[in-house]
Design a protein that fits this description.
By secondary structure, the chain is α/β, with parallel strands linked by helices. 36% of the residues lie in helices and 16% in strands. It has helices at 27-43, 57-66, 92-100, 111-125, 139-145, 182-195, 209-221, 237-248, 284-296, 318-326, 331-335; strands spanning 16-21, 47-50, 68-71, 82-85, 104-107, 129-133, 152-155, 172-176, 227-231, 254-257, 273-278, 302-306. It contains eleven helices and twelve strands. Mean pLDDT is 93; it is low at 1-12 and 340-346. It binds iron/sulfur cluster (SF4). Iron/sulfur cluster binds next to helix 1, helix 4 and helix 7.
Amino acid sequence: MVCGYLRGVSDVSGKRILLASPRGYCAGVDRAVDAVEKALDLYGPPIYVRKEIVHNRYVVQTLSRRGAIFVEETHEVPEGARVVFSAHGVSPQVHEEAAQRGLSTIDATCPLVTKVHKEAVRFAKQDYDIILVGHEGHEEVEGTYGEAPDHIQIVGTPDEVDNVVVRDPEKVVWLSQTTLSVDETMETVRRLRERFPMLMDPPSDDICYATQNRQEVVKTIAPQADLMIVVGSANSSNSVRLVEVALDAGAKAAYRIDEAAELDLAWLDGVETVGITSGASVPDILVREVIERLQSLGFGEAEEVRTRTETITFALPRNLRQALKREGADAEDATGRRTPGPDHTC
Ligand code: SF4
C-alpha cells in the first residue's frame, strides 16, 4: 500500500521507505495526553504533572507551552493544587503523599499498567515471591514495585536470574514491565524456569498489545531494511527496544531519533531501503517530518507495511470524566467513549 498523504517527490532512484503500522500512539498514551489537555481546558493552567506524562520530548514541550508544569516529585506541587499522574503509574506511597498535601489528583496510569499493579498486590497477598522482569529505575517498575516491596525483586536481564533468591521455589510468579522486548523477556523467563520449574506465569500477558504489535511489524520490515529509523525519545523504553528488535531481526543498521533534525546523512550512504517506525508515545507528525526529510533527499513514497489494525481505546480517568460531565462537556468526553487515537492508516 502506498501512503497517499505522503506522496511527494516521485521515486526516480528506487530508494524506498517502508512505513511500519501499527506505530506511534497507543491507547494508554492517547488517554494520558488527552487527560492533561482536557484538564487544562476544564480547569485552566497551571496543571501539574508528576514526571513526564509520557516519555516523549515533543509531547512534554507542547503541553508545557499550554500551561502544564512537569515536576519530578509530589512535594514539588503546591499544596491544594491539581496534579496528573503519568501513564507509567505510581506507587501507593505517591498517592498517600498527594493526599497528605491535599492535592487534587487525576490518575492517568495506563489501565494495562494498573492491571500489573493488581497482579502484584494479589500475589503478594498470597505470599508469593514475585520476580518483576523490568528495568530498575524506570518509573513503571518503581510504581509496580511499590505495591509490594517485601515480595518483589526486580530482574533486568537473563543473566541476573542467577542472583535471584526465593523463600520457596514452589511459590514463585513472574510479572513484567509492559514495554520490554518480548524475545528477551521470554529468555529471562526460560532461565527463571530452569531454576524454578514451578514458576507461575502472569494471568495474562504483561507486555502490552502495543509493545508487541510494534515489535512484530518491525520484525517484518527489518530483514528488508538497510537502515531502520525509530522515532522516539531516549527515555522511552519501548522505542529503545524497537532499535534492538530491528537489529536482531536483520536490519543492517538501526537508530533512534527524536525528530527529523537528528537524521544523520552519513547513515544514508549506500542505503536503498529505509524502514521507519515510532514508539508508543510518539505523535505521527514527527514521523511525517522524517519521511519528508528522506523524500527531500531522493527517497520515494512511503509504502505502508501493516501487520495489525489496532482499535483499542481507554476511557478518560473517572474523576475527570465526571468533572467534564458536570461542566456539560460533549457527550463523548463525559461518557468516556473515545475515538481511537491518531489514525496511522493512509
Ligand atoms: S505502551 Fe502499553 S502499557 Fe504503556 S501506555 Fe501504551 S498501552 Fe499502556
